[in-house]
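Might you be able to review the protein record set out just below?
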Amino acid sequence: MSNLVNFIIIDDDAINNIICTYTINELFPEADIQSFTEPEKGLEYIQKAFSEREYSEVDTILLLDLNMPTMTGWEVLQSYEKLSDQIKEQIKIFILSSSLDRRDKERAKITPHVIDILEKPLSMAKILPSLNS
């Protein structure tokens, strides 16, 4: 993974998004961080921003919550699968959830494009090993 990393956070909890942004800024002060409390807006951003550019040397990490009221993280992933390969090649997905349900963990392991599932709140100790895998 390169030293330059950008992030997209999709979580309906604005406070969690602030915590994530703070944590990311501590590790990657140069990172561009896009945060969305509405999953639909996050998907819209991904489709627009990543289809209009060529492949980037900069890694982009999507931190995705599972339990959201208008669209679950699983539904976001279903919509994400319909995006072009060009878009999907540019983003690495990490589920960031407070869910301790082992079924969520098992499902995350077999879901295409999901690298890992991390437990909220995001911390430096949790994010670094996952980003280096």
